[in-house]
Specification:
Number of helices: 1
Mean pLDDT: 95
Order of helices and strands: HEEEEEEEEE
InterPro entries: Cupin_2, Germin_Mn-BS, PKS_Associated_Protein, RmlC-like_jellyroll, RmlC_Cupin_sf
Organism: Paenibacillus elgii
CATH class: Mainly Beta
Protein name: Cupin type-2 domain-containing protein
Helix content: under 10%
CATH superfamily: Jelly Rolls
Largest sheet: 7 strands, antiparallel
Structural class: mainly beta
Pfam family, one: Cupin_2
CATH architecture: Sandwich
GO molecular function, one term: manganese ion binding
CATH topology: Jelly Rolls
C-alpha cells in the first residue's frame, strides 16, 4: 500500500498531449487486480479477444470504432463508454486521433485472431 508521500497525480490531458506516435498505449495506474490504460492512436488494432477479462473503454477525445466478429460496429464519441465481455472477438480502430481509457485485469491474456 502506498503512503501519502508516494501518491501520484496523473493529468490525462497532459499525458495524452505529449504523445506524438501514431499508436501508444500506457498503463496509467493499477487498482487491485486491474489496470487503467491510456491509448492514443489513429489506425486499427488487430482482431483479438481476452479469454478471462472484460474490457471497459471510455473515450476522452476523437471517435473510437469497435468492430465485432458477430455484430455491428459501434462508434464511441467523447464521454461514451462500453464494456466488452470476456471472450468477445473485436478490434479497435479510429480514423482520427483518438484518446481512450481502458480498464482490464492487469494479467489479462490477449489472443490474436
Amino acid at each position: 500500500m502506498k503512503s501519502a508521500q508516494e501518491l501520484e497525480i496523473v493529468n490525462l490531458a497532459q499525458l495524452s498531449g505529449s504523445v506524438e506516435e501514431q499508436y501508444r498505449n500506457v498503463v496509467v495506474s493499477t487498482v487491485n487486480e486491474s489496470c487503467l490504460r491510456l491509448a492514443v492512436f489513429t489506425g486499427e488494432y488487430q482482431w483479438h479477444y481476452h479469454p478471462t477479462s472484460d474490457e471497459l473503454f471510455i473515450v476522452l477525445e476523437g471517435e473510437l470504432l469497435i468492430d465485432f466478429q458477430d455484430r455491428d460496429t459501434v462508434s464511441l464519441k467523447t464521454n461514451d463508454s462500453i464494456t466488452i465481455p470476456a471472450g468477445v472477438v473485436h478490434r479497435t480502430r479510429s480514423n482520427v486521433r483518438t484518446v481512450n481509457l481502458c480498464f482490464e485485469h492487469t494479467d489479462a491474456d490477449t489472443v490474436f485472431v
